């Protein structure tokens, strides 16, 4: 009878062990937990121009400051008027950040010109032919600094819709051409 008791206990222990193995080995119930990436904010795009070595479009994280934009554009030039810029200001998406030159300072890559009046042609000290903004095509306008093929086409579209430019300053009415771009090309264009 003792042997029968041992056999019965062995069978019972086998069933318990088999139950534990089935419980442990079975597939988990419920839905698996999926970890999502942390939400990220869209970057802030800023167009940096003026007295910087590498003007252009830069992207920054939310909360970036003007100093970050200046650093990304290669710092400031010696001719920059740093006192006119709030380095601690927050950058905004779509902002054009103009780093001004000191009074009387002209960018080194643009020849100094005398502009007697807005209707007269500027003096051209470089010896190159001035580009007539009322008659030039896309290829000719594209040679101007800061004017690419898209902006050149905008100039042509503007004068088609609004007639010829009355003065060279009127080119700033074209979308994408601001004071800084105008300052870079005013010695190279005529009407």
Outline the secondary-structure elements.
Blueprint: H1 2-25, E1 44-50, E2 56-60, H2 66-72, E3 95-99, E4 131-132, H3 138-141, H4 149-162, H5 179-185, E5 189-190
Parallel strand pairs: 1-3, 4-5
Antiparallel strand pairs: 1-2
Question: Tags for this entry?
Answer:
single chain, 191 residues, alpha/beta, two-stranded parallel sheet, 5 helices, 29% helix
Structure description:
It is a single chain. With 191 residues, the protein is α/β, with parallel strands linked by helices. Helix content is 29%, strand content 11%. It is built from 5 helices and 5 strands, in the order H-E-E-H-E-E-H-H-H-E. The strands form 2 sheets. The protein has a 3-stranded mixed sheet, covered by helices on one side. The protein has a two-stranded parallel ribbon with strand order 4-5. The radius of gyration is 35 Å and the shape is elongated. The chain starts with a helix and ends with a strand. About 10% of the residues have low confidence.
The count of β-strands is 5
Spans of 5+ residues with little confidence (pLDDT < 50)?
Answer: 108-126
Strand order, sheet with most strands: 2-1-3
Overall shape: it is elongated
Distance between the termini: 121 Å
**H/E topology pattern:** HEEHEEHHHE
Counted by DSSP, the helix tally is 5
Helix content: 25-40%
Average pLDDT, all residues? 83
Largest sheet: 3 strands, mixed
- Summing up helix and strand content along with how strands pair, one would put the structural category as alpha/beta
Strand content: 5-15%
Radius of gyration, rounded?
A: 35 Å
């Amino acid at each position: 009878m003792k042997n029968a008791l041992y056999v019965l206990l062995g069978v019972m222990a086998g069933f318990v062990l088999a139950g534990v193995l089935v419980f442990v080995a079975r597939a988990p119930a419920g839905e698996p937990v999926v970890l999502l990436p942390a939400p990220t904010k869209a970057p802030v795009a800023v167009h940096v121009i003026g007295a910087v070595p590498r003007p252009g479009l830069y992207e920054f994280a939310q909360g970036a400051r003007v100093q970050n934009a200046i650093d990304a554009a290669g710092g400031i030039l010696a001719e920059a008027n740093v006192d006119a810029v709030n380095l601690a200001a927050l950058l905004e998406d779509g902002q054009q950040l103009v780093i001004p030159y000191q009074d009387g300072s002209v960018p080194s890559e643009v020849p100094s010109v005398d502009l007697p009046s807005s209707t007269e042609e500027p003096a051209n000290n470089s010896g190159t032919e001035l580009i007539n903004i009322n008659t030039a095509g896309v290829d000719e306008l594209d040679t101007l600094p800061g004017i690419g093929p898209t902006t050149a086409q905008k100039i042509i579209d503007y004068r088609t819709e609004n007639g010829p430019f009355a003065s060279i300053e009127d080119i700033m009415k074209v979308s994408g051409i601001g004071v800084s771009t105008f300052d870079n090309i005013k010695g190279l264009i005529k009407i």
